[in-house]
Design a protein that fits this description.
It is a single chain. This protein is mainly α. It has a domain at 124-304: Orthogonal Bundle (MetI-like fold), CATH 1.10.3720. The protein has twelve helices and no strands. The protein has helices at 2-57, 64-67, 74-83, 90-102, 116-151, 156-170, 173-187, 204-241, 244-251, 256-294, 299-308, 312-340. Helix 1 (2-57) runs antiparallel to helix 12 (312-340), helix 5 crosses helix 8 (204-241) and helix 11 runs antiparallel to helix 12 (312-340). The two termini are 43 Å apart.
Length: 347
């Protein structure tokens, strides 16, 4: 019995040691998350102050339509401005907005006559679907093409990939969007060029119609980002593939496929993760143009309509959400660094 107990202790010993080694690592990650979130608070406060002051000082009036309407007396317009606090000092209005945001009240849309948070959450799923799918498409193209081109530099494949990447990055999304509309909607009549949120279908038919109308906007955004990502992936892999440890891995007799996947790609993805994380807010900004072209009822079209209507609460909420995305994706990138490179510590 004692021998069996010793044998069991010998087997369980490494497991307990492994568990003990994981606990401090998980604690370090949690502490790092808390520190980064605490550091993000003053950054977001500073961004919100700048956004609010700029929008408050910008020309335009949300009640401009009422001012040009002869049927609305001036005292009614003034009463509305007083009700919504538009005549108060800027800092008083800012702190009122900040305390309301902390409590979950994002304000009231002057143009749509509904709460801003309700208006935004109606548009978020569509934007996330289009932008998220375009990013998956971009990475699905850029990673294999960039890695394969870097492992065969200056080959025919590499030259073709570089040429297509330069062309794709040089063409703006509004041009490629209009080009796809002319080809696949006007000439061939294969795909709808107007994105509809009220599709009269159920079951698989509903999913198919949603997929058909999303193909062109996803392709436009995905190809534009893939062109940029391909160049970065190729450059990162070329930098890593010349390092000494890669030569050592080849000298050990590993196949070229194993060397590329295990030793090259993982380390080469670190700068690519930085690019993708920092590009995500820009992708949402680029989606504004794409949403206007295909009439997608997303966050981008909401921002454009709010700017045209001088709907300050909506503009402030959408731009602040974009600022939060910058902080969020930077945090995600830092966490991915530790997963890709074990040498990076969160302590």
């Amino acid at each position: 019995m004692s021998a069996a107990r010793n044998l069991l202790h010998g087997v369980d010993g490494p497991r307990r040691a492994l568990h003990r080694s994981r606990v401090p690592e998980e604690t370090a990650v949690l502490n790092y998350l808390i520190r980064r979130l605490l550091l993000a608070i003053p950054s977001l406060l500073g961004i919100s102050v700048i956004l609010f002051v700029v929008l408050a000082l910008a020309p335009g009036d949300p009640f401009e339509e009422l001012a040009t309407n002869p049927n609305v007396p001036p005292e009614v317009r003034e009463a509305l401005r007083t009700k919504f606090g538009l005549n108060d000092p800027i800092m008083v209005r800012y702190f009122r907005w900040l305390f309301a945001m902390v409590q979950g009240d994002w304000g009231f849309s002057f143009a749509s006559r509904i709460n801003v948070d309700t208006l935004i959450w109606q548009r978020v799923p569509t934007t996330l679907f289009v932008v998220g799918s375009s990013q998956l498409l971009a990475l699905a193209i850029a990673l294999p093409v960039g890695i394969y081109a870097a492992t065969r530099p200056y080959s025919i494949f590499d030259q073709i990939a570089n040429t297509l990447a330069f062309v794709g990055f040089s063409l703006p999304t509004f041009f490629t969007g209009l080009l796809l509309i002319l080809i696949f909607s006007v000439s061939l009549d294969w795909l709808p060029f107007v994105y509809r949120s009220d599709i009269a279908a159920t079951g698989w038919r509903w999913y198919w119609e949603n997929l058909r109308q999303a193909i062109m906007p996803i392709t436009v955004l995905g190809l534009f980002q893939a062109a940029s990502y391909t160049r970065y992936v190729r450059s990162a892999v070329l930098d890593v593939i010349q390092l000494d440890y890669v030569t050592t891995a080849r000298a050990k007799g590993l196949s070229e496929r194993a060397v590329t996947l295990r030793h090259v790609t993982r380390n080469a993805l670190i700068p690519v993760v930085t690019l993708v994380a920092l590009q995500m807010p820009a992708v949402f900004g680029g989606a504004i143009v794409t949403e206007q072209i295909f009439r997608i009822p997303g966050i981008g079209s909401l921002l454009i309509s709010a700017i045209l209507a001088n709907d300050t609460p909506v503009i402030m909420a959408v731009t602040f959400v974009f600022s939060c995305l910058v902080v969020l994706f930077n945090l995600i990138a830092d966490l991915l660094y530790g997963w890709l490179d074990p040498r990076i510590s969160f302590g």
